[in-house]
Amino acid sequence: MANFYQLSGRSGLFGVVNGLFSVTLSAIIVAFLQVYIRQIFPYFIEFIIVYIVYIIMVCTMYEGREKKGNNRNRKLSFVGTTISACIVLYVLWCADAVMYGKGRLFERLADPEWMLQYIQYNFFRDEVYGILEVVWVLFAFYSIGMLSKYDVFCENCYIWLEKEPLPMTINADIAKRIKQDIIVDSIAWVDEIEVAKYKPYIQLYITYCGGCDSLNLLSAEHVYEKQTSDGKEDVKEFLFQNLMLTKEKFNQLLERLGENVSKAKKEEA
User: Fold this and answer.
1) Nearest Cα to 90, choosing from 117, 64, 109?
2) pLDDT tens-digit readout, 188-210
3) Which pLDDT belongs to residue 237?
4) By C-alpha distance, which of 166, 266, 259, 158 is closest to 217?
5) Over 90: is that where the pLDDT of 258 sits?
6) Are residues 142 and 174 in the same domain?
7) TM segments (predicted)?
């Protein structure tokens, strides 16, 4: 059976705490801006400026801080993400109360009892909007801010690693063969690869640690066009991610790919 990389699950509590602090601070800063922006721009523009940009910024910041603290525990990441989403919702509702003349921002932030009553009233008065707002914020945090199971961390060098696309794409007709070979932990499919310049094709990615040479991972993404009512659109689907290869198999793959690149260049010449 093929082996796929998994995070070690070691907790990085500092990263989660750091992420929560950053989320709280940025939420309060943007809440001040939100109150000011509402006075200048109509609601739709305020929604775009504050909610969309703000949520993406805060989620990305949380993820960055969590990784900076080297948290590799997805359960702890889930807890931190949930708390972060609650903080953001609380601060956004505080700003909402201020915009409706219910005191100043720090007064509302420092009075959770009053805010709880206001949130309950706001939530049940307009059930659809209240529910959608909660769902939207939670979705944003879990899709952007939560530690992904496909993240890679080198325990020897204590660093996060990123996927690197190989400088060539290969023929997509071997996608089924690749899946079959992976089941039996084989890379015999490398003998059938050819350079593909047009869709559909397969883009290969490698993830490796140059410091200790202990991780050699391979991912494959199938890229093809799909016909829709609006015309053709690109579809990208990973066949697999972070397949662990021995150094021998890793070098065999790179050697075979290099041969195909050289062959393709000669044919072009």
Assistant:
1) 109
2) 898 888 888 889 999 999 999 98
3) 94
4) 166
5) no
6) no
7) 12-37, 43-64, 76-100, 128-147
Q: How far is CA 187 from CA 16, 118, 181, 234, 241, in A?
A: 39, 60, 6, 27, 14
What is the rounded distance in angstroms from the CA atom of residue 39 to the CA atom of residue 26?
A: 20
Kindly state whether residues 143 and 159 are assigned to the same domain.
no
Tokens of 202: 């397969």
Element (H, E) at 205: strand 201-208
Residues 172 and 135 in one domain: no
**Average pLDDT for 69-87:** 90
Domain count, the chain: 2
Structural tokens at position 37: 């922006």
Between CA 55 and CA 81 the distance in angstroms is 12
Confidence of residue 218 (pLDDT cuts 50, 70, 90): very high
Exposure b/e, 198-225, CB count within 10 A at least 16 = b: eebbbbbbbbbbeeeeebbbbbbbbbee
d(CA 4, CA 24): 36
Domain containing 194: what range?
153-268
pTM for this predicted structure: 0.78
pLDDT at 48 over 70: no
Query: What's CA 245's distance to the chain center, in Å?
Result: 24
Q: Which long-range contacts (CB under 8 A, 24 or more apart) does 136-142 make?
A: 137/55, 137/85, 137/88, 137/89, 137/92, 138/82, 138/85, 140/55, 140/56, 140/59, 140/85, 141/55, 141/59, 141/62, 141/81, 141/82, 141/84, 141/85, 141/88, 142/81
